[in-house]
TrEMBL record:
The chain crosses the membrane at residues 43-61, 73-94, 106-126, 132-153, 165-198, 223-243, 255-273, 293-313, 325-346, 371-392. Pfam families: LtrA. InterPro entries: Low_temperature_requirement_A (IPR010640). It comes from Actinomycetospora endophytica. This is Low temperature requirement protein A. The lineage of its organism: Bacteria, Bacillati, Actinomycetota, Actinomycetes, Pseudonocardiales. Keywords: Membrane, Transmembrane, Transmembrane helix. It comes from the Bacteria.
Length: 407
């Protein structure tokens, strides 16, 4: 992907002649640009996703606590796809073509508006499978991305063909999303699955028609920042347990213990996620696809973990239709998925045999926790033990860079 475009760093872009509309040519960014970090606009963009993720997690918790496990998980998976895909597409575009002029900012803010509207449509989808607000707000976000890709195509150099395929592919799928609003029943469900597959196929097709550059350090920093947002939801759930404990004095001990264990588990997940240098995990196109797409499960699991903590609180206070074992699985399953996902895409190529045994084993032990007395405590102990292993066994430098390509 590198070396075939006309790369430019931020200083180069700033020095490029602007048009009479005070717009900067959107030339490809230098994938080796030193000191590339997330911009304030990207951080601002992430803020709206806090709202969407929080609402999705709360609605999932309510569905699980009411005993609607399958319906809640399906709704969460669909809603989270919209959140994740909108965030990921902007993130990869920004690493390749970001400028800082007024039009780029404006189109980004339009996408933010779409995220807020999507957040408003999460509740109706959970309760009645009404997709109207979700789809319309999603299309708003994606049309803004079409405009970004079309603009980038004017100055993309050898990446021009890829940018055109991105724009055409995204636009075509949005037309189909709007058409799907005319469907109902099983046909609407089938269309939903087909269109999700169409969405994730667009980057694969576009990058085989022409490549776009990405900055490894920048892109992995962006993923790390979004992970922090999701783990922050778990800390909020921990705080909620303390609030509930102050109001429910008869359950004080159990709720305080849940709060402490949620903090310990969240901190351990943070430690595990950031153990390896992630930029070494996206050295090829195949690795970047694996890293980007499997992160859906990592992100979704992190959000679901916070929902699981809320379910545990409801179970302790007698407001959940789930039994203790089922409620424990709402915590253990997301934790296990998070562990296996991040191990697959970032840890295993930079780990020795001990770590590559310890991480999957920890996931299996966590899944077995609900049938053991004090399951949440066991989960915390297992994760703390895994963190100790990671401290003792540091990443193997350069393993990812020399490993074989995996899709």
């Amino acid at each position: 992907m590198n070396g075939t475009n006309r790369p430019a760093g931020l200083d180069d872009i700033a020095g490029t002649a602007t048009s009479r509309f005070r717009l900067t040519p959107m030339v490809p960014r230098d994938p080796d640009e030193p000191g590339r970090t997330a911009s304030t606009l990207e951080l601002f963009f992430d803020l709206v996703f806090v709202v969407a993720v929080s609402i999705a997690a709360v609605d999932l918790a309510h569905a699980l606590a009411e005993g609607h496990v399958l319906d809640g998980l399906v709704a969460y998976a669909v809603v989270f796809f919209g959140i994740w895909w909108a965030w990921m597409n902007f993130t990869w575009f920004a690493t390749s073509f970001a400028t800082d002029d007024w039009l780029y900012r404006l189109l980004t803010i339009v996408q933010m508006g779409g995220v807020l509207a999507l957040a408003a449509g999460i509740g109706p989808f959970f309760t009645s499978r009404d997709t109207t607000v979700l789809i319309l707000s999603y299309v708003v976000m994606r049309v803004a991305m079409v405009a970004q890709w079309l603009r980038a195509s004017r100055s993309a150099g050898s990446s021009r063909r890829a940018t055109q395929v991105y724009a055409a592919g995204i636009a075509g799928v949005q037309v189909l999303w709007l058409a799907s609003l005319l469907l109902s029943g099983p046909a609407a469900g089938i269309a939903l699955v087909v269109l999700i597959l169409a969405e994730i196929s667009v980057p694969v097709v576009a990058e085989t028609r022409g490549t776009t550059p990405w900055h490894p350090h920048h892109i992995t920093e962006r993923y790390g920042l979004f992970t922090l947002i999701l783990l922050g939801e778990s800390l909020l759930a921990s705080a909620n347990a303390i609030i509930e404990a102050l109001a429910e004095h008869e359950e004080l001990g159990s709720l305080i213990s849940i709060a402490v264990l949620a903090l310990v588990v969240t901190a351990a997940l943070w430690w595990i996620y950031f153990w390896p240098p992630h930029h070494e995990a996206i050295t090829t196109f195949g690795r970047s696809l694996r890293y980007g797409y499997v992160h859906y499960f990592v992100f979704a699991a992190a959000g679901a973990f916070s929902a699981g903590v809320e379910v545990e609180i409801d179970t302790i206070t007698g407001r959940s239709a789930l039994g203790e074992v089922a409620a424990s699985y709402t915590v253990s399953v997301p934790v296990a998925v998070f562990l296996l996902g991040i191990w697959w895409i970032a840890l295993r190529d930079q780990a020795d045999r001990v770590v590559n045994t310890a991480v999957p084993l920890a996931a299996v032990l966590v899944l077995a926790d609900p049938v053991i007395p004090l399951p949440s405590a066991v989960t915390a102990v297992v994760l703390v033990a895994l963190v100790v292993v990671l401290v003792v066994r540091p990443p193997v430098s350069g393993a990812a860079a020399t490993g074989s390509e995996e899709g």
